[in-house]
Amino acid sequence: MPAGFPDFRLGTVLATSFTGTLSERHGNAVERIPTPERLVDWLAVNGLAVDSCTSAHLDLARELRESIHAAATAAAVQGALPVGAVRVLNDCSIQGRAAAVLTPEGSRRWQLSSGSVEDALSVIAADAISIIAGDRDGRLALCASPTCQAAFLDTSQSRTRKWCDMNTCGNRQKKARYNANHPKNP
C-alpha cells in the first residue's frame, strides 16, 4: 500500500467492506479512498482489478458507497429503504458487466468483462442488493461504536455480534470501558 494513506479495513463481505472505505462516520471520519488511484488499489485488493479510474469514477464509487450505507442502515433497523439509495444501487448493478467464475479450488471470483470501474461497481452493487434483500446467510446489524455505526453482516451463530470489526471498534470500546473502570493513579 502506498505510504501516507490509512490502511484498508478488509472484511469478508464485499459490499460492507466497501462502505468501510469511510470509517468513523460519526466521529473523525477517515476517508480510505481519497484519490482515484486509491480506489484502484482497493478494487485490486478485493479481486476487482480495473485498468484505470478517473475522478468521475471516484465520485460514482463514493455515491454507491453512501447509498449502500444508507440502504443497509435502514435495513438493519427495519426501516424504509431510501428511494435514492435504491435507485443508485440498481443503476450501478445494471450498468456493468461481470461474471462469476468458479476457480479450480472451488471458490468464486469475479471476471470483469472490460476491466472498467463500472464493471467493478456493478459487482459491489449486486453484492449489496443480495445482502439487503436478505438473500445471504446473516443479519444486517449496526456497529455498537457510537462513532462508527457501520452496517455489517452478522454471520455469527447467535446473530448477536456487536462490532463491525473486533480489532478496531470492539477493541476501542473494550479499552474505553476498562479505562473507565480502572482509573490511573495521579
3D architecture notes:
- This protein has helices at residues 14-19, 36-45, 55-76, 83-95, 117-132, 166-181, and strands at 22-23, 30-31, 98-102, 108-112, 139-142, 151-154.
- The protein is an alpha+beta fold and 186 residues long.
- The protein has a two-stranded antiparallel ribbon.
- The longest helix has 22 residues, at 55-76.
- The chain starts with 13 loop residues before the first helix and ends in a 5-residue tail after the last helix.
Q: Layout of helices and strands, plus pairs?
A:
Elements: H1 14-19, E1 22-23, E2 30-31, H2 36-45, H3 55-76, H4 83-95, E3 98-102, E4 108-112, H5 117-132, E5 139-142, E6 151-154, H6 166-181
Antiparallel strand pairs: 1-2, 3-4, 5-6
Please describe the structure with a list of short key phrases separated by commas or semicolons.
single chain, 186 residues, alpha+beta, two-stranded antiparallel ribbon, 6 helices, 45% helix, 12% strand
Q: Uncertain segments of ≥5 residues (pLDDT<50)?
A: none
The largest β sheet comes out as: 2 strands, antiparallel
Write down the secondary-structure element order: HEEHHHEEHEEH
Q: Work out the helicity level.
A: 40-55%
Total helices: the number is 6
Number of strands: 6
Give the end-to-end Cα distance, rounded to a whole number of Å. 41 Å
The shape is globular
